[in-house]
Amino acid sequence: MALGIDTETLRTLETVRARHGNVVRIRQANGREAYFINDPDEVRQLLVKNHARYRKGPGFERVKMLLGNGLIVSDGATWRRSRRMIQPAFSRQNVHRLIQLMVDCAQARATKWAAVAAAGETLDITREMSDFALLLILRCIFGEDYDTRIMASGENPFEFLSRDSARDLRVVLQVREVRDLVLDVIKARREEGASAHFDFLSMYMSATDKEGRHFSDDELLDELITLIVAGYETSAGTLNWAWFLISRNPPAEAELLQEAAKLIPDAGAVDQEALTEMTYTQQLLEETLRLYPPVWLFTRRAEENDVLTRHSVPAGTDIYLSPYILHRTAEYWPEPEMFRPERFGPDAEHKKGERPYFPFSLGPRRCLGEYFSFLEMKVHLGLLIQRFHMTLASDQDPELDLGINLRTRQPIILRPTLRDKR
Ligand code: HEM
């Protein structure tokens, strides 16, 4: 059976699960054995307790071409060292210092959208979300150097990332070019002294391992490119789906609007307390991530023999796990196709921990940017929903386009109208 990281594979895995149950052993077209695991306990055991027996699996070779040995693709001791060095940069305290940048990036969209609304035109929200999230992560990484050094030529040298969905050789070559540019920024920072800045670049540059060593230039470049790719595509995809779902669900839109107007009525005074209190927005985003988890398929390869709760996994076996499929299994999520943010409410019958839900993965390799991404998405939706009502330009359901990330095959087009208030 041929498995890949594509739309065809989703259909194959759905069929296999329906016919053969929660854990299915598959012989792949390349001769290698694979397990497709849909048992929530086994998923948890693999990702949390036994994670060290696995490395990243099929599909990651392609990502490696782009990200070198950065955190998402590295394994074993290299991954452990980098994770320890990088994790402190993502503390809540540090992320809170980036809220103002999140507000600025959302406000920049508002200015553009107001002109589109006034002209009665439509917005390619898919592209807008890519541009929003890419610009935000670049500003969070490079701080003031984004304007002075990265944009020195007048064009964003990273723009190809949000335009080119294929991870082909051309993209790899473009990444090489931007590595040179980033290396120049790093060198200039070294001369100035990194402590003059607060941004991810300076935090990554000052990070040390147990022996007190910093990242080498190559390691630093791999980690920065990883941060850009990990940090924009997933949030952009989630916001893309969130706008789609909001524009289809007037009661959800009304509740979102009411909460935002109460908690962040003024863009000049958005803070972490208000963002924490935005519980409905949080639920809406969690439900969006249930239906459309950007990383829809995880792959692993067993490095040694393992025994999960009910199955033995010989070394060399490939593993496929799909949050997309588990999040839509009726046994755990009744009427799974329905968009219901209240599933994640404090009064929900079952706490989410009791149901399989892992859009950010689980265990030691869990996403580092989860908190960052919720703040970014809450700031964005909270500010923009107060300015615009969005209507879908077409009533067709978007088709899925599945690669490393879950995207829409065609962009989602929305028509913004300015709200009366303000
Ligand atoms: C809605 C937004 C996001 C989702 C759904 C998401 C999801 C994930 C998932 C599923 C993984 C694990 C992948 C695997 O093990 O194969 C991951 C890893 C990671 N994510 Fe995110 N992510 C999001 C946003 C972000 C943001 C905004 C950042 C950075 C600012 C970020 C940084 C990372 C990093 C560095 C890793 C690698 C962690 C490791 O292997 O130790 N992510 N993310």
Can you tell me about this structure?
With 422 residues, this protein is an alpha+beta fold. The chain has one domain: Orthogonal Bundle (Cytochrome p450), CATH 1.10.630.10. The protein is 51% helix and 11% strand. The strands form four sheets. Strands 1-2-8-5-3 form a five-stranded mixed β-sheet. Strands 4-12-9 form a three-stranded antiparallel β-sheet. The chain binds protoporphyrin IX containing FE. Protoporphyrin IX containing FE (HEM) binds next to helix 12 and helix 17.
Structural class label: alpha+beta
Architecture per CATH nomenclature, i.e. the level-2 architecture: Orthogonal Bundle
List SSEs in N-to-C order. Answer: HEEHEHHHHEHHHHHHHHHEEEEHHEEEE
The largest sheet, given as strand count, sense and whether it forms a barrel, is:
5 strands, mixed
Tell me the total number of β-strands: 12
Output the CATH class name: Mainly Alpha
Overall radius of gyration: 22 Å
Shape: globular
Q: What is the percentage of strand-forming residues?
A: 5-15%
Low-confidence stretches: none
Task: Report the bound ligands by name, code or SMILES.
Answer: protoporphyrin IX containing FE
Give the CA-CA distance, first to last residue.
Answer: 58 Å
Oligomer state of the chains in this structure: single chain
Number of helical regions:
17
Average pLDDT reading: 92
CATH fold label:
Cytochrome p450
Number of domains: 1
- Name the strands of the widest sheet in spatial order: 1-2-8-5-3
The CATH H-level homologous superfamily: Cytochrome P450
Helix content: 40-55%
